[in-house]
Amino acid sequence: MSGEVQAAAVLGGLTESEELEDRRGPQRPRRRRIGLGDWLLPVYVVLAFIFLLIPIAYTFVFSFNDSLKSNIAWRGFTFDKWLNVCNVEGGAVCEAFGNSIVIGLVSTVVATTLGTMIAIALVRYRFRARSAISLLLFLPMATPEVVLGAGLAAQFLAVGVPKDMLTIILAHTMFCISFVVVTVKARVASLDPALEEAGRDLYGSPREVFWRITFPLLTPGIMAAALLSFALSFDDFIITNFNSGSVTTFPKYIYISASRGIPAEANVIASAVFLVALAIVVIAQVSRAARAKRLAAQMG
Amino acid sequence: MAFAAFATTEAQPQTTRRKSPIALFLLLPGILYLVLFFLTPLISLILTSLQAPSEFGDIGVYDYAFNWQNYVTVIQDYWPHILRSFGYALLATVFALLFSYPIAYFIGVKARRRPLLQSLLLVLVIAPFFISFLLRTLAWKQILSDESLIITSLKALSLLAPDAYFAGTPFAVVFGLTYNFIPFMTLPLYTTLERLDTRYLEAGSDLYANSFTVFRKVTIPLSMPGIVAGTLLTFIPAAGDYVNASRDFLGGPDTQMMGNVIEANFLVLLNYPAAAALSIILMAAILVLVGVYVKRSGTEDLL
Predict the structure, then answer these.
(1) What is the tens place of the pLDDT at every residue in A55-74?
(2) What is the pLDDT of residue B260?
(3) To bridge B257 with a disulfide, which of A176, B161, B163, B245 should be the other Cys (CB 3.0-4.6 Å)?
(4) Neighbours of A111 (CB within 10 A)
(5) B148: distance to nearest CA of chain A, Å?
(6) Which string of DSSP letters, residue by residue, matches B123-154?
(7) Å from A99 to nearest chain B CA?
(8) Which residues pair with residue A65 across a beta bridge?
(9) Which of B133, B240, B275 lies closest to A237 in CB terms?
(10) Of B102, B70, B45, whose CA–CA distance to A147 is shortest?
(11) Contact B42, B279 (CB under 8 A)
């Protein structure tokens, strides 16, 4: 999704890949033959990453531009925009940013709760209409955003609901649920049933077993799902545009200002968000690597 | 990745599933939510697409009807946009696949023994996600604008014809779509290549296949699930996108896609039936294409 199906993928994918290590077989040392791939591939990968990172570097550099209203030509270096982010256009950028944060938080909490419940039910319980429910969960991810957005807007119009912050939250929660289910489901399915059995053998009630064993074990998956939901919601533009009325979110602010020029303050906010997100992911990766190392040390 | 995740979890050994009223309690709120805010909106989209202008109403007021001619009208009016959407999305998907496969192969296979490098590269693949989708696209617009440093120096070096331009061309739109959806292609490719058992590749070369033949006959078929998931994750959002093709971003008057006309009809012209009919056409076409594609590539269990 707009951008976005995102990180999920990585966040979700990583939580499930831990036990796959041995399925690919041992690596035996190979006789060396200098092939094309030995130098061509690394060179290509380096160039490809430079290409991928160009717009990020551009956005970051231009957050320091001493620009006037529009931020196109380079006019000199300044920290000013970082220090006075909210001073432009009566704080319109910051208001939009605040709206995006509130919408992201509320949608994330609701979608993560509902999605986690569904994920547990899908893995642990038998029920009728399983394939219909799987289809209902899959379809929102296979539907183009413009269709999701127009559909919801048509429904709000038919029912006579005015578009505001609430309709944006309702829309964001909807498209986040499926991604939460996919992410958490992988984690539930990879739980070792022996751990819960041990809890039951020690006379834990079903409630105790769930809250003291199952839920803590699921936490990494739930966290990954929540981060993904927030990222999806925060960067969504297409669905928001159809259901926001006069409320402005950060992406919508950029879309509206694109014709008359985006102030450097928008680059400041985007760069700051980028740095925070990067820090979260790096910390998550490092702690995962540390955990894997600890596990390996215990086993070896 | 979403698709891939569905596939991998289905394949896992089933722990014994119980029948319990708890299941209903767990499922009901979320499923009800999706029925209310995903399923019924699709139905109201279908109903809206058949509406007729109200006899007494103003602009933007419609009555429920069975006005199927709306579909004929939008196809007549917008067939170039419809073709363009699928053409651009197809090109972007092919380019993204060609661009991403070597990266995914490097991270998933070559960097396997260096977990730190692997994690670092994965973070770099998803890094573009962390900067606003719209700002990324605008950054390209400015980098590739007529007065930009890159374009003017290419022209000064005669590497580019003096009258060449980039902004507002179909090339720019396909470029933007490709760039923006590369991570969607790379991640599922990486997930399958990461699990590729390299002993199969060795078996291929032990049987005197050259590295190209091994790649074509072993690596590609084994990475098919990733290729299918990646192309779907790229093609679907690309076909419905309207940011890249928008005039304020990378597009021009001759590059408008279905998303642009759906947006214009719904939010500007208040022609809801036309916007709804176009949405239904887009969704139906995508479902048909995806169904055929998944069947032909022999990975039905993916869904």
Answers:
(1) 999 999 999 988 877 777 78
(2) 95
(3) B245
(4) 30
(5) 9
(6) HHHHGGGGS-HHHHHHHHHHHTSTTSHHHHHH
(7) 15
(8) A77
(9) B133
(10) B45
(11) no
Rounded CA separation B175/B4 (Å): 26
| pLDDT at residue number B50 | 92
3-state secondary structure of B14: coil
Write out pLDDT tens, residues B216-241: 888 888 899 899 989 999 999 999 99
Could you tell me if B194 and B281 are in contact, meaning their C-beta atoms sit under 8 angstroms apart?
Answer: no
Give a yes or no: residue B26 inside a domain. no
* Domains parsed from chain A with CATH numbers: 8-17+37-299 (1.10.3720.10)
CA torsion sign for B245, A8, B119, A273 is positive
- The 10s digit of each residue's pLDDT in B94-119 is 999 999 999 999 999 988 888 888 88
Contact A135/A253 with Cβ under 8 angstroms?
no
Q: Do A185 and B24 touch (CB under 8 A)?
A: no
CA A236 to mean position of chain CA atoms = 11
**Assigned domain for B6 exists:** no
- Chain A CA closest to residue B41: A151
Residue type at A34? Answer: I
Residues in chain B: 303
Whether A5 and chain B come into contact, CB under 8 Å, resolves to yes
* Helix (H) or strand (E) run with residue B62 in it: strand B62-63
Q: Could B138 and A124 be called an inter-chain contact, meaning their C-beta atoms sit closer than 8 Å?
A: no
- Which stretches of A69-164 are DSSP H helices? 80-83, 92-124, 130-142, 145-159
Whether residue A4 has pLDDT greater than 80: no
Residue B273, classified by CB atoms within 10 Å of its CB into exposed (0-12), middle (13-18) or buried (19+), is buried
The CA-atom distances, in angstroms, between A211 and each of A204, A225, B105 are: 10, 19, 41
Domain residues for the domain of B137 are 47-302
Determine the residue among A118, A137, A146, A281 to mutate to test chain B binding: the one whose Cβ has the most chain B Cβ atoms within 10 Å. Answer: A146
Using an 8 Å Cβ cutoff, are B31 and A34 in contact? Answer: no
Would you give the distance in Å from CA A60 to the centre of its chain? Answer: 21
Q: How many CB atoms lie within 10 A of CB A107?
A: 26
Measured CA to CA, the distance from residue B110 to residue B101 in angstroms comes to: 13
What are the backbone dihedrals phi and psi of residue B299, each rounded to the nearest 5 degrees, phi first?
Answer: -125, 45
Can you give the pTM of this predicted structure? 0.86
- The verdict on residue B267 lying in a domain is yes
- Which of A55, A150, A157 lies at the smallest CB-CB distance from B279? A150
Q: Which two tokens stand for residue A262?
A: 């985006």
- From chain A residues 241-260, the ones with a CB under 8 A of any chain B CB are 241-242, 250-251, 254-255, 258-259
Which tokens in the block code for residue A179? 């991604």
Residue B255 confidence (pLDDT):
92
Q: Does A186 touch chain B (CB under 8 A)?
A: yes
Residue B234 lies in a domain: yes
Of the pLDDT bands very low, low, confident and very high (cuts 50, 70, 90), residue A98 is very high
Q: CA B283, B240, B44, A140 torsion: positive or negative?
A: positive
